[in-house]
From TrEMBL:
Gene3D superfamilies for the chain: 3.60.21.10, 5'-Nucleotidase, C-terminal domain
Annotated protein name in UniProt: Putative nucleotide phosphoesterase
Domain named 5'-Nucleotidase C-terminal: residues: 292-409
Keywords annotated in UniProt: Hydrolase, Nucleotide-binding, Signal
Record PANTHER family: 5'-NUCLEOTIDASE-RELATED, 5-NUCLEOTIDASE FAMILY PROTEIN
GO cellular component: outer membrane-bounded periplasmic space
Species this chain originates from: Fructobacillus ficulneus
Hydrolase in keyword set: yes
GO molecular function per UniProt: 5'-nucleotidase activity; nucleotide binding; UDP-sugar diphosphatase activity
Residue span(s) of domain Calcineurin-like phosphoesterase: 8-199
Family: Belongs to the 5'-nucleotidase family.
Pfam families tied to this protein: 5_nucleotid_C, Metallophos
GO BP of this protein: nucleotide catabolic process
Length: 449
């Protein structure tokens, strides 16, 4: 009989306050004959100054110290970084990146930093096939030079060959729990280690013979899968558990390490000087600047955003990348949406109807790192004396198409259904704080400062 243990993390999102305990667990002793360590994506998140300043390179360096055996990527790696930055994220990684359903445009080539699958072999001769898959956001990935491929088409192509070569197969899935369950019903997979939907499976879940496992988010759990195999390298028992972070002891020095991560990030961010302000830029000022920046970038006269995007004032004096990160830590990008006149009327009516409730409406996820939606901010959309909606001073016609400069955040949050499926152009190479930084720099140049 042979024992194999799989230790796993997912959706850490640069919550480095968890890292000392998580990393200690990953490196801890085990009674299994063989132990593999996997991360299932979204290890990075640019809300943390150390990640933002190094474009995730610092996270990779920390993961190198653990001895991960393989990782896959999530949307925070794939879409939170520019094409160029993702191409260099793993330059110094000492582990393979497994990613079977994303190719690089224009040639549709496998990224140089990733491979579709890998076969590990234990000392006892058991061959472990591992595949990596990530959520295939069709429009967004293609806009930054990557081509996501259908999950089932990818498995249909790869899995039969891998099953022939390996004794059992593990899927590193940054696809979400609903998809994991569907794949368990359709495919001969022994283990699916999940992520993306931040779900916790305390004791795993057995579905159609496939063991599903997942360890929550932000390092609030770590995952452990225990497998026992017979002399023919076939699994005879398998179990999973998600171990709460609170069960892992805090040790002297942990707080110092956490603070050191923060301090180093802030130091690096502060080295990036952006603009000098003679007056405080209040949250309200930043909201107005956002509307103007969106209009100037898009060349449009109409824009929409919300005050909850701005978390603190930008102070008098030299402002750095750290100041802008502190006010706008979100993974949110400029977007131009195209709406018919009727759709635009519906959106503005919905904004007006919800305006009071949105003021303190709590928002989570979809790249947002603040607390509430805040005040609705509009520019270029007004009503005339007859109550007709005006777009840049002209009466909105029902069937005519109109463009609206805004942010992709409003497409993903479940508030404005008219934006969900409308044609849109999203600049994933530019974050909100980078848009504002560029706008303020151009304003300073114009003023001769």
């Amino acid at each position: 009989m042979e024992s194999i243990q799989l230790r796993h993390t997912n959706d850490l999102h640069s919550h480095l306050e968890s890292w000392p305990r998580v990393s200690r667990y990953l490196q801890g002793q085990t009674t299994a004959q063989t132990t593999y360590k996997f991360d299932i994506g979204d290890a990075i998140d640019r809300f943390h100054p150390l990640t933002d300043a190094t474009m995730g390179q610092a996270n990779v360096k920390l993961m190198n110290q653990i001895g991960y055996d393989a990782v896959t990527i999530g949307n925070n790696e794939g879409l939170g970084l520019s094409h160029e930055d993702l191409n260099h994220l793993y330059d110094h990684a000492n582990y393979p990146v497994l990613l079977a359903n994303l190719t690089e445009l224009p040639g549709n080539n496998q990224p140089a930093w990733a491979q579709p699958s890998h076969i590990f072999e234990t000392e006892a001769g058991t061959k472990v096939g591992v595949i990596g898959l990530t959520a295939p956001y069709e429009l967004t990935y293609r806009s930054v030079g990557w081509n996501p491929h259908d999950v089932e088409t990818t498995l249909d192509r790869l899995l039969p060959r891998l099953r022939d070569q390996a004794d059992f197969v593990v899927l590193l899935s940054h696809l979400g729990l609903p998809t994991d369950r569907e794949l368990a019903d359709k495919y001969d997979l022994d283990v699916i280690i999940g992520a993306h939907t931040h779900h916790v499976l305390p004791q795993g879940e057995l579905k159609n013979g496939t063991l599903l496992a997942a360890a929550g988010r932000y390092g609030d759990h770590v995952g452990q899968i225990d497998l026992v195999l017979d002399d023919n390298h076939q699994i005879v028992t398998k179990s999973a558990q998600a171990i709460p972070l609170t069960d892992l002891p805090i040790e002297p020095g942990d707080e110092d390490k956490i603070q050191a991560f923060q301090d180093r990030g802030i130091q690096l961010e502060n080295e990036h000087k952006i603009v000098h302000f003679d007056q405080v830029q209040t949250i309200a000022d930043q909201g107005r600047a956002c509307l103007q920046a969106l209009k100037e970038k898009s060349g449009l006269d109409v824009a929409f955003c919300s005050a909850g995007l701005f978390l603190q004032d930008l102070p008098v004096g030299e402002n750095t990348a750290e100041d802008f990160l502190a006010s706008m830590p979100h993974s949110i990008h400029p977007m131009v949406a195209t709406l018919t006149g009727n759709e635009l009327k519906d959106l503005v009516a919905e904004l007006k109807a919800k305006e009071a409730s949105l003021l303190n409406q709590r928002v989570k996820g979809s790249g947002f790192r603040g607390k509430v939606f805040g005040q609705v901010l509009l520019s270029g959309l007004t009503y005339d004396d007859q109550g007709q909606l005006l777009y840049a001073g002209q009466v909105v016609q029902a069937d005519k198409q109109y463009k609206l400069a805004t942010l992709d955040h409003y497409r993903w949050v479940d508030f404005f259904h008219v934006l969900d499926d409308s044609p849109a152009e999203i600049d994933l190479n530019l974050l909100l704080r980078e848009l504002l930084a560029k706008y303020y720099q151009e304003q300073a140049l114009t003023a001769g400062k």
